[in-house]
Specification:
Number of domains: 2
Largest sheet: 4 strands, antiparallel
Radius of gyration: 23 Å
Helix content: 40-55%
GO molecular function, one term: transposase activity
Keywords: DNA recombination, DNA-binding, Metal-binding, Transposition, Zinc, Zinc-finger
Order of helices and strands: HEEEHEHEHHHHHHHEEEEHHH
Number of helices: 13
InterPro entries: MULE_transposase_dom, Transposase_mutator, Znf_PMZ, Znf_SWIM
């Protein structure tokens, strides 16, 4: 009886190893045939299924014990157990949206929604504590309930900055599940072929699109940079040396070390994209802010992520005399 199958396309593996941040989103989606089952854990989301899947993934990608990488998932107990056992050194982030759905059952309304996400999305502990103070002023019980879910696993203020990822929701996995939704209605072999074909084309299209660009950084990162440049107009840099600045923004003051690539707001440290305080300092030195974007967001690294290719696969009744290289 068929039970399960693990496959990882070599072109995708190569791209992740050579050009992607060390972040993996874990999720399962239901297959929509009468046979049922799930993609990623075929016979169901249980401990044994996830242990098998994550162990296969660990070996194929050479993850070791998960050093300097992040895993992002919902709070399914099977995933929590397996990541802790197989990848004990990985930072395991829990999807803030799933936590919000549970927390919000007892604290309804737009005001609580805004307070939850303000606390979750702040980049440093000072802003985090300020957000909780605001929440406590509305309802002290909301803060107690918030802390029960362990903010260190879903709030940016406590995340590891080495991965240069500030994501705290599992939307990327769900986006991929939507991307393959038509394939999920087919039987296994045809579903896998549809996924292979879609990814084969995607690698080429993404690579060609980026090759047309002459910019230093990726287009979406450039959009974020332009927003920070606009906000920099409200920042006043006061140099202490060529690299150290005190930056005043309204009633707040921040310390920027351009050479060390840190800002006390922590946004630059975590994302690798200069915040408005840093941009103001860079402009003061008559340099371009794009030079200070982390390499992981630059065009050359993006091209490495999509440099691989997925081989062609002829149908059962055609191309039998052909070989592809």
């Amino acid at each position: 009886m068929f039970k399960r199958l693990f496959f990882c396309l070599d072109g995708v593996k190569k791209g992740w190893l050579e050009g992607c941040k060390r972040v993996i989103f874990l999720d399962a989606c239901f297959l929509k045939t009468f046979l049922g089952g799930q993609l990623m854990a075929v016979e169901g989301e249980n401990n044994y299924s996830w242990e098998w899947f994550v162990t296969e993934l660990q070996g194929y990608l050479g993850l070791g014990e998960g050093d300097k990488m992040a895993i992002l998932s919902d709070e399914h107990q099977g995933i929590l157990n397996v990541v802790d056992e197989v990848l004990p050194k990985a930072e395991h982030r829990h999807c803030a949206r799933h936590i919000f759905a549970l927390w919000h059952k007892n604290f309804r309304g737009d005001e609580f929604k805004l307070l939850f996400w303000k606390a979750s999305k702040t980049y440093n502990e000072a802003d985090y504590n300020e957000a909780l103070d605001e929440m406590e002023a509305v309802n002290p019980d909301a803060v107690i309930a918030f802390k029960i879910y362990n903010p260190k696993v879903f709030c940016r203020a406590f995340m590891d900055i080495t991965t240069k990822v500030d994501v705290i929701v599992n939307n990327l996995a769900e986006t991929f599940n939507g991307y393959i939704i038509n394939a999920r209605v087919k039987h296994l072999i045809y579903m896998l072929e549809d996924i292979r074909l879609a990814l084969m084309q995607r690698l080429v299209i993404k690579r060609k699109d980026m090759e047309k660009s002459k910019a230093i950084v990726c287009p979406r990162i450039q959009v974020k940079m332009e927003k920070e440049k606009l906000l920099a107009a409200n920042c006043t840099p006061c140099p202490s040396s060529e690299a150290l600045f005190q930056v005043n923004q309204f009633m707040d003051s921040y310390i920027v070390d351009v050479q060390g690539r840190t800002c006390t707001c922590s946004k630059w440290d975590m994302t690798g994209i200069p915040c408005c305080h840093v941009v103001a300092c860079i402009f003061f030195t008559n340099r371009e802010a794009e030079e200070y974007v982390d390499d992981c967001h630059k065009r050359d690294v993006y091209l490495q992520a999509y440099a691989g290719s997925i081989p062609l696969c002829a149908g059962e009744n055609i191309g039998l005399g052909l070989s592809f290289h």
